[in-house]
Design goal:
The structure is a single chain. By secondary structure, the chain is α/β, with parallel strands linked by helices. It has two domains: about 180 residues, FAD/NAD(P)-binding domain (3-Layer(bba) Sandwich), CATH 3.50.50; about 190 residues, Polyamine Oxidase, Chain A, domain 2 (Alpha-Beta Complex). A hairpin with a 7-residue loop joins β6 and β7. α1 packs parallel to α3 and α4 crosses α5. The longest helix is centred in the C-terminal third of the chain and has 18 residues. The radius of gyration is 22 Å and the shape is elongated.
Length: about 375
């Protein structure tokens, strides 16, 4: 009998992959391997401390800023809310007190207007959304987690799935599994993984055509000693038709540094040829234009262009709309792959495709479906 290296292989070490591993262990299943192409876990969740701020001794790490997803909504996303509560993570509501600023056209000065409060409120995690990734990682105590390993092929051999992956040196490795959980966005699965035999053509098209959340986006964060805009009665929120950022928010951390962040409104294809230093200068200039001369000299700044991240975006995403796509089918209903693979990344979530809560929902549903189908011969 051909050896089986793991009952389950999880492809992707973002939130969905880690939660899938957590769910398996919660159900008493320790025989799993997680493979992540990046050299670190978290996927599109990246909460960073600028180097100039130095090491953060407080284990809560207040001075970390989200370059990926930032918010969740407890009233609308109870499953995610319960997980965060169970993990004991501290939270706080997005700061929205005060007026907001509008740049209605490229030729008009910014105008001040009454702000609005989200209802239900947007909520953030102390230490950034990466605090959730880290807490889950500590809960996954069985199985194996391997980073720097890109899965490039899934191949059926008899009753098993052979998972072929490449390390950073280009060496190939094989694992034999009973079932595979795809915790990588559908379009990236289609782009990077070869299936033998091929997936059903209609399903492959669905996965190819599902845009990846964050892929067209870029975020800029500027860090300051104090939230000086609040002293002006401003919330830190702004909308701009002039740019380069179209949407801006207060990114300050409680008991940490003050910060502003914005989503760049320049299309990904246009950003591609612009040097990072040029983008940084234009973003600083916009904050100065909006919030005054104190904004011109941040003590640190960060920019993340997800469209240039090979593990997030494909060429198709450069012209993709910056919107959440509808969830494609997660399961193969007929043929050789039925009951062997399932999509569990956030884009496969029925309720919250692309959101943090979607990663939790899709992973839970994927684990349940694989346990229901089992690995009986097809």
């Amino acid at each position: 009998m051909t050896r089986v290296d793991a009952r389950f292989v999880i492809v992707g070490g973002g939130l969905a992959g880690l939660y899938a591993a957590h769910e398996l262990e919660r159900l008493g299943i320790s025989d799993h391997v997680l493979l992540e192409a990046r050299p670190f876990l978290g996927g599109r969740i990246q909460s960073l401390t600028p180097q100039c701020l130095g090491p953060v001794e407080d284990p809560v790490r207040h001075d970390r800023f989200d370059l990926g997803p930032t918010w969740f909504w407890p009233a609308l996303q109870p499953e995610l809310d319960q997980l965060i509560t169970t993990l004991g993570l501290a939270r706080f509501e997005q700061f929205e007190v005060g007026d907001m600023l509008l740049e209605r056209s490229p030729n008009e000065p910014p105008v001040r207007t009454s702000g609005y409060t989200n209802s239900p409120p947007s909520v953030r995690l102390v230490g950034g959304m990466a605090a959730l990734v880290e807490a889950l990682r500590h809960r996954v105590t069985s199985g194996r987690i391997v980073v720097g390993r890109q899965v490039c092929e899934l191949r059926r051999e008899g009753p098993h799935v052979v998972v072929v992956s490449a390390d950073s040196a280009g060496h190939l490795h094989e694992l034999r599994a009973e079932q595979v959980l795809l915790a990588t966005p559908p379009r990236l699965v289609h782009e990077h993984i070869r299936f033998s035999p091929a997936l059903p053509a209609s399903l492959a098209r669905q996965w190819r055509d599902t845009t990846t959340w964050m892929a067209p986006h870029a975020k800029y964060v500027a860090v300051y000693d104090t939230p000086f805009w609040r002293e002006q009665g401003l919330s830190g929120e702004a909308r701009s038709a002039r740019g380069p950022m179209g949407e801006i928010h207060d990114a300050s951390m409680p008991d940490g540094s003050a910060a502003l962040f914005g989503f760049l409104g320049i299309p990904a294809a246009m950003r591609r040829g612009v040097p990072e230093e040029t983008l940084l200068a234009h973003c600083r200039g916009q904050f100065t234009r909006l919030f005054g001369p104190q904004a011109a000299t941040p003590k640190a700044e960060l920019i993340k262009d997800w469209a240039q991240d090979v593990w997030t975006a494909t060429a198709s995403d450069l012209a993709a709309p910056a919107a959440h796509a509808s969830a494609p089918a997660a399961l193969v209903s007929v043929g050789d792959w039925r009951g062997r693979i399932v999509g569990v990344a956030s884009e496969w979530s029925p309720q919250f495709p692309g959101y943090v809560a979607g990663a939790i929902e899709a992973a839970r549903l994927g684990v349940q479906s694989m346990l229901l189908t089992g690995a009986a011969p097809l």
